[in-house]
Amino acid sequence: MDLLANLIDREEARDKIQQAGLDTKVGFFPFTESSLDSFCEYIRENPERALPRAIIESINECAVSAFRAEDALIDDNRVEAMRR
What we know:
Order of helices and strands: HHHH
Low-confidence stretches: none
Number of domains: 1
Number of helices: 4
Mean pLDDT: 92
């Protein structure tokens, strides 16, 4: 998935994944593989969500939610919370 290719530092992501033993791959970080799929589906549901500004806002919403819960990854629950 190229959505995150320009938004993350791949070396830093690789280090964090290895150090914390996170269940994800560099290309999906900071999402789990399934939550990134869900996130992309969420974007495709509404063309307005596909605007770069909207995508960044949505990623930020998920990331802040995970950070507040002290979770290292954005999981399916965080993405599903955006639908509510």
